[in-house]
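Dock shikimate-3-phosphate; give full complex structure.
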Amino acid sequence: MPNIILIGFMGSGKTTIGERLADRMGLPFIDTDHEIERLKGMSIDQIFKEEGEMNFRELEKKLIASLSVRDQDFVIAVGGGLPCYNGLIHTLNQMGTTVYLKCPVSLLAERLVMDSTDRPLLSNLDKEQLVGYIEEKLKEREAFYEQAKVVICDDWSANAILRSLLPQKS
Ligand code: S3P
Protein backbone atom coordinates (compact mmCIF):
# COMPACT_ATOMS: atom_id res chain seq x y z
CA MET A 1 0.00 0.00 0.00
CA PRO A 2 1.58 3.31 -1.01
CA ASN A 3 1.49 6.59 0.92
CA ILE A 4 -1.96 8.02 1.57
CA ILE A 5 -2.21 11.76 1.16
CA LEU A 6 -5.31 13.55 2.43
CA ILE A 7 -6.23 16.83 0.80
CA GLY A 8 -9.18 19.20 1.07
CA PHE A 9 -10.39 22.49 2.43
CA MET A 10 -9.74 23.66 5.99
CA GLY A 11 -12.16 21.84 8.27
CA SER A 12 -12.62 18.82 6.00
CA GLY A 13 -11.21 16.46 8.65
CA LYS A 14 -7.80 15.67 7.13
CA THR A 15 -5.94 15.59 10.44
CA THR A 16 -8.61 13.65 12.36
CA ILE A 17 -9.03 11.05 9.62
CA GLY A 18 -5.28 10.94 8.90
CA GLU A 19 -4.35 10.21 12.52
CA ARG A 20 -6.88 7.38 12.79
CA LEU A 21 -5.93 5.93 9.42
CA ALA A 22 -2.23 5.96 10.27
CA ASP A 23 -2.97 4.31 13.60
CA ARG A 24 -5.01 1.51 12.02
CA MET A 25 -2.47 0.96 9.25
CA GLY A 26 0.52 1.08 11.59
CA LEU A 27 2.12 3.90 9.59
CA PRO A 28 3.61 7.19 10.76
CA PHE A 29 1.34 10.23 10.45
CA ILE A 30 2.55 13.58 9.19
CA ASP A 31 0.56 16.81 9.25
CA THR A 32 2.30 19.39 7.05
CA ASP A 33 1.21 22.35 9.19
CA HIS A 34 2.56 20.75 12.36
CA GLU A 35 5.77 19.76 10.61
CA ILE A 36 6.34 23.30 9.32
CA GLU A 37 5.65 24.71 12.79
CA ARG A 38 8.13 22.26 14.29
CA LEU A 39 10.84 22.96 11.72
CA LYS A 40 10.44 26.75 11.90
CA GLY A 41 9.77 26.95 15.63
CA MET A 42 6.87 29.30 14.83
CA SER A 43 3.09 28.89 14.64
CA ILE A 44 1.36 29.04 11.24
CA ASP A 45 -0.26 32.26 12.39
CA GLN A 46 3.14 33.80 13.21
CA ILE A 47 4.59 32.69 9.86
CA PHE A 48 1.71 34.34 7.99
CA LYS A 49 1.99 37.52 10.04
CA GLU A 50 5.77 37.86 10.10
CA GLU A 51 6.83 36.33 6.78
CA GLY A 52 3.68 36.41 4.65
CA GLU A 53 1.61 33.78 2.87
CA MET A 54 3.95 33.39 -0.11
CA ASN A 55 6.81 32.46 2.18
CA PHE A 56 4.56 29.90 3.85
CA ARG A 57 3.81 28.41 0.39
CA GLU A 58 7.57 28.09 -0.19
CA LEU A 59 7.94 26.25 3.12
CA GLU A 60 5.15 23.87 2.05
CA LYS A 61 6.92 23.28 -1.27
CA LYS A 62 10.24 22.51 0.43
CA LEU A 63 8.61 20.17 2.91
CA ILE A 64 6.86 18.19 0.15
CA ALA A 65 10.15 17.98 -1.77
CA SER A 66 11.81 16.44 1.29
CA LEU A 67 8.92 14.03 1.97
CA SER A 68 8.76 12.91 -1.66
CA VAL A 69 12.19 11.29 -1.45
CA ARG A 70 11.50 9.37 1.78
CA ASP A 71 11.63 5.60 1.55
CA GLN A 72 9.15 4.82 4.28
CA ASP A 73 5.38 4.85 3.69
CA PHE A 74 3.23 7.26 5.71
CA VAL A 75 -0.16 8.89 5.94
CA ILE A 76 0.01 12.62 5.38
CA ALA A 77 -2.54 15.39 5.85
CA VAL A 78 -1.61 18.50 3.89
CA GLY A 79 -2.67 22.10 4.56
CA GLY A 80 -5.78 23.20 2.68
CA GLY A 81 -3.95 25.43 0.20
CA LEU A 82 -0.91 23.23 -0.40
CA PRO A 83 -2.14 21.25 -3.45
CA CYS A 84 -3.16 24.50 -5.19
CA TYR A 85 0.27 26.17 -5.31
CA ASN A 86 3.52 25.44 -7.17
CA GLY A 87 2.03 22.48 -9.07
CA LEU A 88 2.08 20.44 -5.87
CA ILE A 89 -1.04 18.44 -6.70
CA HIS A 90 1.07 16.69 -9.37
CA THR A 91 3.88 15.97 -6.92
CA LEU A 92 1.36 14.61 -4.41
CA ASN A 93 -0.18 12.37 -7.08
CA GLN A 94 3.26 10.98 -7.82
CA MET A 95 3.92 10.33 -4.15
CA GLY A 96 0.94 8.07 -3.49
CA THR A 97 -2.84 7.79 -3.25
CA THR A 98 -4.26 11.26 -2.93
CA VAL A 99 -7.68 11.40 -1.28
CA TYR A 100 -9.86 14.49 -1.49
CA LEU A 101 -12.16 14.79 1.51
CA LYS A 102 -14.92 16.73 -0.18
CA CYS A 103 -17.34 18.43 2.22
CA PRO A 104 -20.35 20.66 1.66
CA VAL A 105 -19.83 24.37 2.37
CA SER A 106 -22.41 24.25 5.17
CA LEU A 107 -20.48 21.56 7.05
CA LEU A 108 -17.13 23.31 6.56
CA ALA A 109 -18.63 26.57 7.85
CA GLU A 110 -20.17 24.82 10.84
CA ARG A 111 -16.82 23.31 11.81
CA LEU A 112 -14.70 26.37 11.05
CA VAL A 113 -16.89 28.80 12.95
CA MET A 114 -16.18 26.71 16.05
CA ASP A 115 -12.46 26.54 15.37
CA SER A 116 -10.78 29.27 13.33
CA THR A 117 -8.18 30.06 16.00
CA ASP A 118 -4.99 28.92 14.32
CA ARG A 119 -6.15 29.66 10.78
CA PRO A 120 -4.85 33.08 9.78
CA LEU A 121 -6.90 33.18 6.57
CA LEU A 122 -10.11 33.05 8.61
CA SER A 123 -9.24 35.05 11.67
CA ASN A 124 -11.08 38.27 10.78
CA LEU A 125 -14.28 36.78 9.39
CA ASP A 126 -17.69 36.61 11.05
CA LYS A 127 -20.02 33.70 10.31
CA GLU A 128 -21.65 35.28 7.26
CA GLN A 129 -18.34 36.36 5.76
CA LEU A 130 -16.96 32.90 6.47
CA VAL A 131 -19.61 31.20 4.30
CA GLY A 132 -18.89 33.62 1.42
CA TYR A 133 -15.15 33.10 1.81
CA ILE A 134 -15.44 29.31 1.75
CA GLU A 135 -17.68 29.39 -1.34
CA GLU A 136 -15.29 31.65 -3.21
CA LYS A 137 -12.07 29.84 -2.21
CA LEU A 138 -13.56 26.43 -2.92
CA LYS A 139 -14.45 27.56 -6.44
CA GLU A 140 -10.79 28.48 -7.00
CA ARG A 141 -9.43 25.34 -5.39
CA GLU A 142 -11.84 22.63 -6.49
CA ALA A 143 -10.05 22.19 -9.85
CA PHE A 144 -6.91 21.20 -7.92
CA TYR A 145 -8.64 19.08 -5.29
CA GLU A 146 -10.60 17.17 -7.93
CA GLN A 147 -7.33 15.89 -9.41
CA ALA A 148 -6.96 13.58 -6.40
CA LYS A 149 -7.00 9.88 -7.23
CA VAL A 150 -9.86 9.22 -4.82
CA VAL A 151 -12.68 11.65 -4.05
CA ILE A 152 -14.79 10.97 -0.99
CA CYS A 153 -17.93 12.82 -1.82
CA ASP A 154 -19.89 13.78 1.21
CA ASP A 155 -20.04 14.29 4.91
CA TRP A 156 -19.48 10.69 5.93
CA SER A 157 -18.57 9.91 9.47
CA ALA A 158 -14.88 9.46 10.15
CA ASN A 159 -15.44 5.72 10.59
CA ALA A 160 -17.19 5.35 7.24
CA ILE A 161 -14.31 7.16 5.53
CA LEU A 162 -11.81 4.95 7.28
CA ARG A 163 -13.66 1.79 6.22
CA SER A 164 -13.62 2.92 2.60
CA LEU A 165 -9.87 3.62 2.65
CA LEU A 166 -8.50 0.76 4.70
CA PRO A 167 -7.37 -2.33 2.81
CA GLN A 168 -10.12 -4.99 2.97
CA LYS A 169 -9.26 -8.11 4.97
CA SER A 170 -9.65 -11.28 2.88
C1 S3P B 1 -4.56 26.95 4.79
C2 S3P B 1 -4.95 25.85 5.52
C3 S3P B 1 -4.38 25.52 6.83
C4 S3P B 1 -2.95 26.07 6.93
C5 S3P B 1 -2.91 27.53 6.62
C6 S3P B 1 -3.47 27.86 5.24
C7 S3P B 1 -5.23 27.21 3.49
O1 S3P B 1 -4.33 24.11 7.01
O2 S3P B 1 -2.08 25.39 6.06
O3 S3P B 1 -3.66 28.19 7.63
O4 S3P B 1 -4.67 27.97 2.67
O5 S3P B 1 -6.31 26.63 3.25
P1 S3P B 1 -5.64 23.21 7.35
O6 S3P B 1 -6.31 22.90 6.05
O7 S3P B 1 -5.05 22.00 7.99
O8 S3P B 1 -6.49 24.01 8.28
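Observed: The first strand starts at residue 3 and ends at 7.
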